[in-house]
Write a structure and sequence with these properties.
- It comes from Methylorubrum salsuginis.
- It catalyses: 2 GTP = 3',3'-c-di-GMP + 2 diphosphate.
- The two termini are 29 Å apart.
- The chain contains six helices and six strands.
- The protein is 43% helix and 17% strand.
- The chain has one domain: Alpha-Beta Plaits (2-Layer Sandwich), CATH 3.30.70.
- By secondary structure, the protein is an alpha/beta fold.
Length: 182
């Protein structure tokens, strides 16, 4: 969420929590189809997981998410940049099978794309080229996506270990591909 700290400082933490729940509901309602899983990682961090989606689809998913949150027209009393509603900045990172990539690398790339969106004025979607994903990482990431999609509660620590060290992110999009090169 863009300017989340300002929102919390101005409207209060109860309103901030309500807004985050509203964003989560909006994102879940925006992606009811199978194949896109919405998860809150913590703070104002969300992830949209879309296994097998090509990079261009991930950019479209990011734009749908951005537009849906803006269309909620949720008042943002702490904005000082001329906008009056809650918006999000989106960073998109895609992966394809390959050697050497760590899960933290994917988040680092998505986080860099996210900050490019924020630095370009916020309320934007920025993507990064597809990265190789080694076979040894793909199954655990797919397991996280499958657990979330099935509505099961995740084992303690499964997600925090996945995103450790990435604070102040609004949304991280990840594409967990299973074989096809983009």
């Amino acid at each position: 969420m863009d300017h989340f700290k300002r929102f919390n400082d101005t409207a209060g933490h109860v309103a901030g929590d309500a807004c985050l729940k509203g964003i989560a509901a909006c994102l879940a309602g925006t992606f009811p189809e199978k194949g896109v899983t919405v998860a809150r990682l913590g703070g104002e961090e969300f992830a949209l997981l879309a296994p097998d989606a090509p990079p261009e689809t991930m950019l479209a998913i990011g734009e749908r998410a951005r537009a849906a949150v803006e269309a909620m027209a949720w008042a943002h009393p702490g904005r000082s940049d001329g906008a009056s509603v809650v918006t999000i900045s989106v960073g998109v990172a895609s992966v394809v099978p390959g050697p050497g990539l760590q899960a933290a690398d994917l988040l680092r790339v998505a986080d860099a794309a996210l900050y490019e969106s924020k630095n370009s004025g916020r309320n934007a979607v920025t993507g990064r080229p597809a990265l190789p994903l080694p076979d040894r990482i793909r199954p655990p990431l797919r397991a996280v996506s499958d657990l979330i999609a099935s509505g099961q509660e995740l084992p303690f620590g499964m997600i925090p270990d996945f995103h450790r060290g990435y604070r102040n992110s609004s949304i991280v999009l990840q594409n967990i591909a299973t074989g096809a090169q983009p």
